[in-house]
Design a protein that fits this description.
Mean pLDDT: 92
Number of strands: 10
Number of helices: 45
Structural class: mainly alpha
Helix content: 55-70%
Largest sheet: 5 strands, mixed
Low-confidence stretches: 1-6
């Protein structure tokens, strides 16, 4: 019987030594297997030193149970107690890897692999591993021998005998030995094939780079040649059989599981290409067809098995092509694509747990280092290592990255790789996901010597290192550029001017010499301004490079900084408000319009922040009118008042453009707006409200100067077209009609003269050349068009519409809406035109035919010569005209009976028509998508070029900027044009059916 208190004492000791289930551990210690050593203090201490003492104890009992006889059992226990190296190695492995514990339980004599502790065992290479695999005679025995070798690697790893880089190198060497053994088995099984060919196995990826994981695909490329006198085709078929058999030996699952998949998809043409090619065939492909990523992959090419002389020939032949990759035509676009994180294929719930592909993950470091190798390795052979950490060290030694930054990234990469190793070692499964279970996190944390609070310490260290990696582009790509031009003091090596130019070209800068001049002007000197800009610029340069025109972004930033650099709040805003700097970078590099608006009054930069007066949310009509009317009220004269109104308009146009750009590009904290229609509505509503407020302020200024507080005639402005529909773009004119009504006792002539003078003066003041963009007033939609009077009385409109109105005028009035002036007069005008635009019982058949004739004539006569009609946003198939005329025909026919159709807005009317069953949901969606896309393209063209246009730009960089705004990354402009044509084609099919009755 157990003495009172003894259990609690053992229980407490087990807790102190890190056991999480002391009761179960106590039962195992009391079991017959451990009876001879249960009270040994060294055993409990050694168990407590493992990553998971419970797992280690359970694995030890299983191993003891699996011993074949009492002698073997006693041998294991005696060695365990007497030999500390074995004890630490064996228990360390059992506490870190359930999979290797399973292997030891199946092969209980394999613990002897951990007994030897001679100096030559500390860092084995390929030869030692080949000896360890030498007795394997079939795939099953090869797996057993492989796991036995893996035991020794894991033991050195968990005991700290090797660091993560040495462990990765040992795993790569074991993979090399395994590939050789597997190829040997394949050749022994088919000696006739082996006699026909020379076959070289080239390791790629992490195996080629001598930095393999515990469980990873082993990437390879096969090169085959015929032996002297053999037929080449027969030799290639033989080589293919051998390569395929070798892959199966490693990849197939047996009673001992599998080793790892052998992946040959990095070969020319990927899985669609032949498995084995001759050396000349490889070279022909790389010289003509290969993409940048393929040369990037070849950085790590290393012959490992088969005919090593042929493998060396292959590497020597492809190496010059690798270092010429940066000179290729599409290199910059390819680099931009590689730099952009590809996380779309990772489930949203897993992104933050992805050690390899997630933000701040291992792939970020590896891709960045490889990119710098491709850029600078052309002229510096010291950078041509296939191992990530060696290459990073060489980049630092050569001054291509800062030593301190390289050191931090080295530390972060080692930590993340160590986490990855521990995660994979547990079950020997290929995964890069950080587990969520507390027990798993505790085991990983303890295995990394985080013992005080393993779970929280692990999470904190992981996030800290991932944060370092998240900023790696700033550290690796851009900070050395600033160090090169600032030259603040002696010390470590810096980028040479030529190396700096090479890097800028690789990052997308078309004029690296000018970029370096801008950087020198911004970052040189010891002023506070220069110091802050040296801190900001590495980040800003990365954001500029993410755009289609990095040069413009940098130039515009210099202009803004020259204008505002001595203003205390400007640099403080960029330094202290994270969103402001990124928003500014996006705005300055997205095209001409927003920077032009900003340069005219650089203090508008404040809008990009989050503080008071900042924020990019467009202001509403009431707020805008209040501000503009107040400014007009303070002004001395109409000219000064309208100048104030135009200043507000310029500032608010910038706010809207910035919100649109940031929403389209997205930021690090906020992804791009997925709802394209929401961005269209934002711009259309904001610009329309701003135009209405500007007209209201201009009207007030003109009336006050000419007539005091009251005009001799009531006066109202009616918005038409896109203005009335709340769908104005950045470059739209203000389509309006003017209506007036003489006040009591005022002669018609006097009233008409006053009204015409108001219109003339408004148009003049809004178009005077100044720092603010003009607002053009277009009154061509008035009765009789350009031939008719510019302003009419309400009675004149009534008489005209009653007698002369044509069906196209009824259609145009569908978008009429009061925007400024006398509200009561505006309301009566609306009442007057409602019967025209919503005719009782709809349109007569002749009117429908007339609308169709007008539309057909417009399509044939108004399309500019030489324009690709399929890419014309207004008049092309599925363009704005197609959708709007279709919707407006439905309104003319049915709005008299369906009040929801009585709206000036295209998308609202389309939605109401769908709700009323006038068209199907799919057709409505097709039309809406086409209208939104065409509107977005027009907005993009104005943002990029600074002037309005209805077609895609022909200049490549402008077209790329339009694509970037629309969500198409570098190199994907062709996809944008194809998508536009496809969307237009589908919409035109709906129009043919609904509008033309086809």
């Amino acid at each position: 019987m157990m003495a009172p208190g003894r259990r609690s004492s053992t229980f407490s000791r087990l807790l102190r030594h890190g056991f999480t289930d002391p009761s179960a551990a106590e039962r195992l210690l009391e079991s017959g297997e451990l009876a001879p050593v249960r009270n040994d203090p060294f055993l409990l201490e050694a168990l407590g030193g493992t990553a998971d003492p419970d797992l280690a104890l359970h694995g030890l009992v299983r191993l003891l149970e699996a011993q074949s006889d009492p002698t073997a059992h006693r041998e294991l226990l005696d060695t365990l107690i007497a030999a500390k190296p074995l004890r630490d190695r064996l228990l360390g492995v059992l506490g870190a890897s359930a999979a290797l514990a399973d292997h030891l339980a199946r092969h209980p004599r394999d613990w002897h692999a951990l007994v030897m502790y001679e100096p030559r065992d500390l860092h084995p290479g390929v030869e030692e591993f080949e000896r360890g695999l030498a007795e394997a005679s079939d795939p099953v025995s090869l797996r057993v021998a492989y796991r036995r070798c893996l035991l020794s690697i894991a033991a050195r790893d968990v005991c700290g005998t090797t660091d993560v880089a040495q462990t990765a190198a040992e795993l790569a060497d074991l993979a090399t030995a395994t590939l050789r053994a597997a190829l040997g088995l394949a050749q022994a099984a088919a000696p006739e094939d082996a006699a026909l060919c020379r076959l070289a196995v080239i390791a790629m990826g992490k195996c080629g780079g001598h930095e393999l994981n515990y469980v990873s695909d082993v990437d390879v490329i096969f090169v085959g040649e015929a032996v002297d006198g053999a037929d080449e085709q027969k030799a290639l078929r033989a080589a293919t059989k051998l390569a395929s058999h070798m892959m199966r030996i490693c990849s197939e699952t047996t009673i001992e599981g599998s080793i790892w998949p052998v992946d040959a998809n990095l070969r020319p043409e990927g899985r669609n290409g032949p498995l084995v090619r001759t050396l000349s065939s490889h070279l022909a492909y790389y010289q003509r067809w290969a993409k940048t990523w393929e040369f990037q992959a070849l950085l790590k090419a290393r012959p490992v098995a088969g005919d090593l002389h042929l493998g060396a020939e292959y590497v020597a032949a492809v190496e010059p092509l690798v270092w010429q990759a940066a000179e290729r035509e599409n290199f910059v676009a390819d680099v931009q694509k590689m730099r952009r994180r590809v996380v779309e294929n990772i489930p949203a719930a897993e992104v933050e747990r992805e050690l390899k592909l997630g933000p701040g993950g291992l792939r970020d470091v590896e891709f960045a280092v490889q990119l710098l190798q491709l850029v600078h390795g052309r002229t510096d052979a010291s950078l041509r290592s296939g191992t990530t950490l060696d290459a990073l060290q060489a980049l630092a030694a050569g001054g291509y990255v800062g030593r301190e930054d390289a050191g931090r990234l080295d530390e972060a990469y080692r930590f993340l790789r160590s986490m990855e190793h521990r995660i994979q070692l547990y079950r020997l499964r290929r995964t890069h996901l950080v587990p969520e279970g507390e027990g798993d996190l505790r085991r990983i944390g303890r295995s990394l010597n985080l013992r005080t609070d393993p779970v929280n310490e692990l999470t904190r260290e992981w996030k800290r290192h991932a944060g370092v990696v998240r900023r790696l582009h700033e550290k690796l790509f851009y900070r050395p550029l600033l160090d090169a031009v600032a030259q603040l003091g002696p010390g470590e090596a810096r980028l040479s001017p030529e190396a700096a130019r090479e890097r800028l070209v690789a990052l997308g800068y078309a004029d690296p010499a000018a970029a370096l001049r801008h950087l020198e002007a911004l970052a040189s000197g010891v002023s506070r301004k220069a110091a802050i800009q040296r801190t900001l610029l590495p980040v800003l340069l990365g954001w500029f490079a993410d755009s289609a025109d990095p040069d413009a972004g940098l130039l515009n930033f210099r202009k803004v900084s020259d204008a505002l650099g001595k203003t205390p709040w400007y640099l403080r805003l960029l330094r202290d408000e994270g969103a402001a700097a990124e928003n500014l970078a996006r705005v300055l590099s997205a095209g001409r319009l927003a920077p032009d608006l900003l340069m005219r009054a650089p203090e508008a930069v404040a809008l990009l922040g989050n503080g008071n007066g900042g924020g990019l949310e467009p202001r509403g009509l009431a707020h805008l009118e209040q501000e503009i009317l107040a400014a007009v009220g303070r002004a001395e004269g109409a000219a000064q008042g309208v100048t104030a109104a135009r200043g507000v308009r310029r500032r608010e146009l910038f706010r809207t453009a910035a919100a649109d750009i940031v929403g389209s590009y997205g930021t690090e904290a906020q992804p791009a707006e997925a709802d394209q229609g929401a961005l269209v509505d934002l711009v259309g509503g904001a610009v329309s409200d701003l135009t209405a407020a500007t007209l209201a302020g201009t009207l007030r200024a003109v009336v006050r100067e000419g007539w005091g507080e009251e005009l001799p005639t009531r006066f109202a402005i009616i918005g038409m077209g896109r203005f009335g529909g709340h769908e104005l773009g950045y470059g739209s004119d203000a389509d309006v009609v003017f209506v007036h009504e003489p006040r009591d006792g005022v002669e018609d002539r006097e009233a008409a003269d006053a009204a015409n003078k108001v219109v003339s003066e408004m148009r003049r003041l809004l178009q005077i050349p100044s720092a603010d963009p003009p607002l053009l007033i277009d009154a061509d939609l008035r009765p009789e068009g350009k031939s008719g009077p510019l302003v009419r009385t309400l009675k004149s409109y009534e008489a005209y519409y009653r007698r002369w109105s044509l069906v196209w005028e009824s259609q145009a009035l569908l978008r009429a809406e009061f925007v400024a002036g006398d509200e009561e007069l505006g309301r009566r005008f609306m009442d007057l035109i409602d019967p025209l635009r919503y005719p009782t019982r709809g349109l007569e058949e002749e009117s429908v035919r007339e609308i169709r004739r007008l539309k057909a004539r417009m399509e044939s006569e108004r399309l500019p010569r030489g324009t690709d009609p399929k890419l014309h946003t207004k008049l092309g198939p599925g363009g704005l005209s197609d959708v709007e005329w279709t919707v407006q025909l439905l309104q003319l026919q049915h709005a008299w009976d369906l009040p929801d159709l009585r709206t000036t807005r295209t998308r609202e009317a389309l939605s109401a028509a769908r709700a009323a069953g006038l068209l199907g949901a799919e057709d409505a969606e097709i039309l809406d998508e086409a209208w939104v896309l065409a509107t977005r393209v027009r907005n993009a063209v104005m943002l990029v070029r600074g002037r309005a246009g209805d077609t895609f730009p022909s200049e490549s960089r402008e077209l790329a900027a339009v694509g970037r705004y629309l969500g198409y990354g570098p190199g994907h402009v062709g996809e944008l044009l194809d998508a536009y044509r496809r969307t237009g084609r589908r919409a035109r099919g709906v129009v043919e059916s609904l509008f033309y009755g086809g």
